[in-house]
Amino acid sequence: MTTTITLVRGDITRQSADAIVNAANSSLLGGGGVDGAIHRRGGPAILAECRKLRAGHYGKGLPTGRAVATTAGDLDARWVIHTVGPVHSTTEDRSDLLASCYRESLRVADELGARTVAFPAISTGVYRWPLEDAARIAVKTVRAARTAVEEVRFVLFDDRAHEAFAAQVG
């Protein structure tokens, strides 16, 4: 089965999908950017489930490159899949960690039975990953993934991000 990749310029919290991916920080307790927006629009149910995760298996936080799901709260989705992207480094290649965010999110989506998944451009905000490289890694990883997800939607906040991903999708 082939996964369809679509690009949308807009606000990921306004998407209708089975799962919305959150570019979370390791605390799982909300933050800035996409993370803060998802927690604000999704409401307190997301934070409550994140706190339960922190009280249990993820007491030290979610490791970079891993993914875990919670309810989507008030979002137009069934689940939020939280993944922690790597901070970009000019001295260390962390590309595998960024690719792992997409692979692990799709693995979790498959476990949940999600067929549509909306992704942000992970690590391109405060984690400073260069947009063109992040787009290359994201699209390549999704195309190579063995997944039952039917549609991966990259929801890109601005024209520059949309153009970078469009160049990779072709």
UniProtKB/TrEMBL annotation:
<keyword id="KW-0378">Hydrolase</keyword>
<dbReference type="GO" id="GO:0061463">
    <property type="term" value="F:O-acetyl-ADP-ribose deacetylase activity"/>
</dbReference>
<dbReference type="Pfam" id="PF01661">
    <property type="entry name" value="Macro"/>
</dbReference>
<protein>
    <submittedName>
        <fullName>O-acetyl-ADP-ribose deacetylase</fullName>
        <ecNumber>3.1.1.106</ecNumber>
    </submittedName>
</protein>
<dbReference type="InterPro" id="IPR043472">
    <property type="entry name" value="Macro_dom-like"/>
</dbReference>
<dbReference type="InterPro" id="IPR002589">
    <property type="entry name" value="Macro_dom"/>
</dbReference>
<feature type="domain" description="Macro">
    <location>
        <begin position="1"/>
        <end position="170"/>
    </location>
</feature>
